[in-house]
Amino acid sequence: MKKLLSALVAAVFAVSTASAFAASHVKAAGEKQEEMKKEEAAAPAKEEMKAPAKAKKAKKAKKAKKEEMKKEEGK
């Protein structure tokens, strides 16, 4: 009977330890997912910041092309 009781106590200890480790890993995974969601939410804002810069570059390229065409016409 004593061996049975010690085996049960050991099994309970093993199960509780394993569940504690599993819970900590689940919590860590949940935090990572929250961070990823925050980064994804911030990503469109970054793209919006880049959009005006791209528009400026496009305007500059268009202007340079017009100037080139004027130079060629003048020759």
Report what the structure shows.
With 75 residues, the protein is mainly alpha-helical. It is built from one helix and no strands. It is rod-shaped. The model has no long low-confidence stretch (mean pLDDT 77).
What distinguishing features does this structure have?
single chain; 75 residues; mainly alpha; 1 helix; rod-shaped
- Helix content class: over 70%
> Structural class of the secondary structure composition?
mainly alpha
Pick out the low-confidence regions: none
Question: Can you count the beta strands?
Answer: 0
Percent in strands: under 5%
Number of helical stretches of at least 4 residues: 1
Shape: rod-shaped
Q: Give the helices and strands as they follow along the chain.
A: H
Radius of gyration, rounded?
32 Å
How far do the termini sit from each other? 109 Å
Main β sheet profile: none
Overall pLDDT metric: 77
Topology record:
Blueprint: H1 2-74
What's the gist of this structure?
The chain has 75 residues and is an all-alpha fold. The chain is built from one helix and no strands.
